[in-house]
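Objective 1b: paired records.
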Amino acid sequence: LETRAYLSLQKARLLLERCNWTDAKESFTSARYIYQRLRDAVADEHKPIYSNQLESIDTGLSFCEYNAGDIAVGKSGIDTTHLADKIDKLVLESNKPVEEETITWIGRTVPIKNEKIRTFFKRLETIQAEIAAATEERSKIALIEDALEESRQAQYILKEDQSEKTTGGMSVIMFLLGYVTFLKLGQSVQKNVSLLCSTLETESTNQNNVGLLSLFLSSAQRIKPHLILRYIDNVLQLLDDILELPVLQISSAEDVIKEYKMRKLALKTIRCFQLARGYSFQNEWKSALALYVRSSKLLKESLEATSGYKLEHSWLIALQKSLKDEQFYAFTQTLVEQSSPTILEEKDSGQPIESELDKFVDCSGLAVGKKSLVKLPPDMLPVPCKPFFFDIASNHVTLPSGVEQKVKSQEQSGIGGYFKGWLWGSSK
């Protein structure tokens, strides 16, 4: 029918250009009848398309009737009864009740008119089912990344449609945008939790890994605290972002706000416990004990808040068992530090042991070559100088006649001959 209407419209425009007013009017009237009935048959979101076509047809039809001599718009001798049956059948089919897709959240149900948003929610249900069926954390992380990408695209679509005017509170588009943002933040929380579980599987020596419950096992003490605290801080920030969503504040969703505040309190308890473990790892027992005491106070509040939530409550029950043991151990280590005598350790002077025999010296460095018994090489000692004039034996040696004259001439010219003549006189 729509194809026939479009064909009649184009034929009418061609006849209008040829100034064939009567035939153009009949074609305009046929197209107008079909478009008008189709507009009544389609949904509200598609009606503006047919209304625009009807406005352009009415303009051309009025022009043809003016030139043809008719007065009233819409009068035509064409018989449209052959189209009535088909159009009436289409109208009856379109008027059948169709289940409209809706979303119910925080006590409000809104329809989903955008086809892309409908596809997004169907795709999201499929991904969530795959995540629930996945057994490895790496597979879960990959699926969560797909869900995050779908959520980003849905956010972009809804922001483009946000031009809808708000009547009597929050508009449908704003509500859907807030809901998609809420889902996206929840997926980010789920991603960080999966990354934390993956880190625990990689770093922990426990073969029977039980997810986040392995955080409270003794084997988790070997894991560096900053690896765990990084993900916990990310989740806490995401929970703050969820609680600050305008859609939750405007809709007064007390139950959702209460649930996420409970999760935030439970996560703060776990974070404080992990910080205490970090100080224990560095043997700073006083700071660790203070944080363990703080964790005990937070744990009491968290157990009361999570009484109706099975998963979070099981985490805190496991935490309670480990917290008691580690708190008592930190307390005993603190007492040991306070009762042990304080030994003033002198700094190593770097001198060998033979020069510090009057002091107590830790000789453990001898085995590794950091300490020496004696100094090698020894220090240089001063010795007396040779006399300035010491070699006079050559003056009393009898030499052959030929050599004697030559030696005497050399002695007279040297410093020995000078002192000889000065001290003992010269021999002629």
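Objective 1b, second protein:
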Amino acid sequence: MCKHVLNAQVSIRAPCCKIWIDCPDCHQEKAPDHPLAKTTEMVFACKKCKKVFRKDMSLYEEADEYCPGCDNHYVIEAKTPESQGQFMISLEGSADMIRDHREKQKNAIGAFQNVM
């Protein structure tokens, strides 16, 4: 479990020392004797289905953002300890824009069923 990226969806095999990491900071902590090597071929392990797969980063496309085993979207915005609790939703416009009119329809259907 990574303490730097709280919602990591995959582990990455470091090409230099072959250890499994969730982020570059984890590599720095586990292998402080050398920097993380760069490569175009990455090896991932999905944390959802545990499938291990390779991706050629020089040919990376939008469809490659999903695990080939379970279709888990692993390229997502990282949640870090610093960002926790800082997500806010801003709504603009009138109250009618956010009112759920389906509730009114559901009540009308329920009232109709009670009549019969």
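Strands lie at 10-13, 20-21, 41-46, 52-56. The longest strand covers residues 41-46.
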